[in-house]
Amino acid sequence: MTTAAAVQPARIATSIKAGYGIGQIAGQLFRDTPSLLLLFFLTNVMGISPALAGTAIFIPKVVLGALFDLGIGAMSDKLAGRFPRRNWFVVAALASPVAMLGIFAVPHASAGFQVAWVMVTFSFYMAVYSSFSVPYLAMLAEMTSNPRERTELMGWKHSFGGIGLLLSSSVAPMAVSALGTDQRAHMIVMGTVGVSCLIFMLIAWRVAGRIVPVPKVAGDRAAERSALAGLASAFADRRFVILSLSAVVMTISAGIGYASFPFFVKYSMARAEPLHDLGIMAAIMGVAVIFGSPLWVMVAGRIGKVPAYVLAAAGHGLVVFVWGLVPRAPVEVAYLLSALLAVCNAGWGTIVLSLLSDCIAQARDEFGENRAGSYSAIWSAIEKAGIALGGTLIVGVLLSWFGFDSAAAKAGLPQSASAMFGILFCYSFLPGVAKVVAAGMIWKFVREPRLS
Questions:
Q1: Spatial distance between the Cα atoms of 435 and 250, rounded to a whole number of angstroms
Q2: Helix or strand holding residue 14 (H, E)
Q3: How far apart are CA 371 and CA 438, in angstroms?
Q4: What count of Cα atoms within 13 Å lies in the side-chain half-sphere of residue 308?
Q5: Which class for 272: exposed (0-12), middle (13-18), buried (19 or more C-beta within 10 A)?
Q6: What is the pLDDT of residues 204-236, one digit of tens each?
Q7: For residue range 390-437, what is the model confidence (pLDDT) as tens digits?
Q8: Which end of the chain is more exposed for a tag (fewer CB within 10 A), N or C?
Q9: In angstroms, rounded to a whole number, what is the distance separating the alpha carbons of residues 364 and 214?
Q10: With contact defined as beta carbons under 8 Å apart, do 162 and 83 qualify?
């Protein structure tokens, strides 16, 4: 078998790392904008109960989203020779504006019709998202055989994710606030987001044409393998299973935090213009992620990927827990906590994807198969299902259980003491504990590869 070093350049050109990383801006917009705005929009603008709204998002996002991810992952492995992975980016790019607009174009009709509308349009949205996210992640794992280069790649990806965070979690809600916070405001902003995704995906598609992939493994059976066999082989890999279980915990807690953040800002922090203030804090987070990602690449190079991940994930949990203890502190304290939270987020987000790419490379070396599509599909499904489970179903059910009143929210009336505690529990206490648990799983069970 030809060695990777004989075919690949010693280092990937910075222009390729940067150009390909730009695609993550689109990925971040797809992941975060609806996670942040949609549940709040459906409850506070459309007047749908949290549990009903959360269920309407959860079902297509988890059930159909997982099927889309797994199907596209298997197909991208099987068809890689005839339909390169990067061509999936074009499919997703062209459909992005329609997908973004559809989920907020909820008609003023009966609650049943509104729920059906959200379920159908969100199903289409998830198909578009899968068409980009799965091949994009798979290609990242195929770009180099060097573990340190993979960490650097993930650093570039996560830095551009910080720009996506700025756009999705700062610019978008502030624009909605400036335009009036009604449905029309949401539609204008989401249409703009959709066109932005189209542009960023096409840039990544163009740059992907310059990538020199890791050489194919002699006798690779991925093209002949069925989708079910590919999934079975992934779950037989203990390293991948441990990473996946930690990702389940991490993404569910992240989803809970995203969806409950607007409620936390409005009710726990008692801010008069919650979307505007949320936008300022998200801007701070975005800048912190941009500058924090390369910092964590250096930290991982010094102390190792696993200790760096544990430090970042446990730190994230501690910061969010502390924030829940002092929600009415001066806004400057909130700005500082936002920055610390984002720096920690940059750490665990960068390192865990580098560990995933190491796992894919080890499987390729040990089992003689390129499983990038299957592993990436499962990982993408976990991320989306976790965000959906935490950010729609769990938050919706918990807020309803604690007594959050959507009718009072729509009318601008205060919430009960029980509902106020439920918001704190959802944003701070539950995610804080979960992130420490995920850090412990990685520390106990994951070993990173050594450089040869």
A1: 6
A2: helix 14-21
A3: 25
A4: 28
A5: exposed
A6: 999 998 887 766 554 455 545 555 555 667 777
A7: 877 788 889 989 999 888 887 888 899 999 999 999 999 999 999 999
A8: C
A9: 10
A10: no
